[in-house]
Amino acid sequence: MQTRLFASPQYPAVPTADGALYPVHRIFCVGRNYAEHAREMGVEVDREAPFYFMKDACSLVLSGATTPYPPGTENYHHEVELVLAVGRQTFRAAVAEAAAAIWGYGCGLDMTRRDLQQAARAKQRPWDIGKNFENSAVIAPLTQAAAFGPVGHQRIALSVNGRTRQDARLSDLVWSPAELVAHLSRYYHLAPGDLIYTGTPAGVGPVVAGDVIQGEIDGLAPVELTIGAPE
Ligand code: MN
């Protein structure tokens, strides 16, 4: 019998509105899924197909946390996003089938080391160092799709210390939740435990130690993050 050298890392789980836990396996994130945000980043939305990056499950942090201002950045940004929680095995799904694979929704923050992301982008390198790091995927409790209802004109907004910075509608999404699940399922065997951050609207900006970030989407539990002192 071989000795396990250390305990296996634990996958995180997200509380649900009805008191259960949703175990998380993978975190997919969509880039440039609101036209106004793409414009403020100096690019246009690619309407041919969505594109993705990933965060490790261990980067997840639950709403209400205080997390340290992360290392290596001088431009730490907030991005409020609708998060999809996949609820069944999905591979090469049509859009209607993909819609039925969405177990529920959450309000999340895709925290970003913008300076590192943009430096990588300028050199045509991967974005990981700007996007995939500890505490960078913040998530509020999840709500089942049936209780949330159709994704449409719901408001998605974010404030820092009570001042509104992002304010849009889910109807501004370029690619709908079902379209994203269908497209991703052409490249991955999606499964229960997969979260998909669907992109952020315009108004992203920096935060500093002491800031309190609040994100909200009509019909979902709000997400909150406090930025602590640098490590
Ligand atoms: Mn994002």
Commentary on this structure:
It is built from six helices and 18 strands. By secondary structure, it is α+β, with helices and mostly antiparallel strands. The chain has one domain: Alpha-Beta Complex (Fumarylacetoacetate hydrolase, domain 2), CATH 3.90.850. The strands form four sheets. Strands 3, 4, 5, 8, 9, 11, 12 and 15 form an eight-stranded mixed sheet that branches. A five-stranded mixed sheet has the order 6-18-17-13-14, with no helix packed on it. It has a three-stranded antiparallel sheet with strand order 10-7-16. A hairpin with a 2-residue loop joins β13 (about 155-160) and β14 (about 165-170). It is globular and about 40 Å long. The mean pLDDT is about 95. The structure holds manganese (II) ion (MN). Manganese (II) ion (MN) binds next to loops.
Secondary-structure blueprint:
Layout (H helix, E strand, L loop, with lengths): L12 E3 L5 E3 L2 E6 L3 H6 L10 E5 L4 E3 L2 E4 L7 E3 L1 E7 L8 H6 L1 E9 L1 E2 H9 L5 H4 L5 E3 L3 E2 H4 L6 E6 L2 E7 L7 H8 L9 E4 L7 E2 L5 E6 L5 E6 L3
Parallel strand pairs: 3-15, 5-11, 6-18
Antiparallel strand pairs: 1-2, 3-4, 7-10, 7-16, 8-9, 8-15, 9-11, 9-12, 13-14, 13-17, 17-18
Helix/strand/pairing category: alpha+beta
Low-confidence runs: none
Number of domains: 1
CATH topology: Fumarylacetoacetate hydrolase, domain 2
Helix content: 10-25%
Task: List the helices and strands in order.
Answer: EEEHEEEEEHEEHHEEHEEHEEEE
Bound heterogens, unique: manganese (II) ion
Primary descriptors:
binds manganese (II) ion, 6 helices, five-stranded mixed β-sheet, eight-stranded mixed β-sheet, 231 residues, Fumarylacetoacetate hydrolase, domain 2, alpha+beta
